[in-house]
Amino acid sequence: MIGDLRKKIDQIDNQILDLLEKRARLAIEAGVLKKDKPIYDPKREKEILDSIENRLPGVFPKSTLRSVFREIISGCRQIQENSRLENKTKKTHMIISSNDSQSWIKVSRSSQPEDSEFNVKGVILGGDDFVVIAGPCSIESKEQSDQVAQAVRSCGAKIFRGGAFKPRTSPYSFQGLGWDGIDILSQTAKSFGMPSVSEVTSIDQVERMASQINILQVGARNMQNFDLLKALGKTDNAILLKRGLSATIEEFLAAAEYIVSEGNPHVILCERGIRTFEPSTRNTLDLSAVPILKERSHLPVFVDPSHGVGIRRWIRPLCRAAKAVGAHGIMLEVHPDPENAKSDADQALSFEDFELIMDDLSRIPKDHTYR
Fold this sequence. Notes:
The protein is built from twelve helices and ten strands. It is of the alpha/beta class.
């Protein structure tokens, strides 16, 4: 007897599921007809719930039925929103393809749904940890390099950065120490047990730089230096690719594709601000790029607040924002005597500034999602 009743209940459950499926499909059609209008209609939801509650009483209490149908309506609304998002994504991909711009296949999220993670000398990039890269804009001496490494490492920085070849807007600005700077950076990083990062500016530097530095940086001005990108794609080093001064996100991802397509999957995308009409800051830090890049690509996404604004006192809040918005890490410029730094003095952080930032970051949970 109980077995027969269970079979009937199973049949009714299947009928309910079929009806829910039909309701969901009708909801999708309604969402299409709404076009760009808001999906959520509180007036319509109230009408449905009131209508159900006003029906003749049955076995279920009215409050139970209202609760059940509220969940059904909410579920259908979510399906409508997902359908609209998928349609928008398809349209975006169609536009990209029609413009012959979809040249970032291997770095796309569709090619690899899970996030890329890679290990650089014990530091996991792209994983759950929020990684801080810090060091001087330019290596000026062994003493300065060691001072900064000790300070940032003691505060929690995982990777040591330092410039040796500095492409500058003015030919009269400090251009870095060249290979002497690379030697100092490499020695300091090893002494303090930290992976190293430095910018490579030309193809002829790649081989030697790759043998001494763990992460090779492509500066904003070289983002579309395609021969350099191809050469870096043939190395085994991790590559930190900075967004160009006026590059779109599509162009940024296409630049990453140049590296990955040559066989090197270890690319880190770094948002460092773009050039806009706003003169108050050195650049306009596009933090909206972080969730967009994480949605479209599986590669780790970092932010460079130092170059993003170029003004020391505004860097700290942007570090907090970078972590809150979901970046995998940040890169900062730190100097023992910021006012007298040979490169980018206005944006160089003191040891005290850096310590305050690291304390701020320890209080902010990292957003691991890409949507």
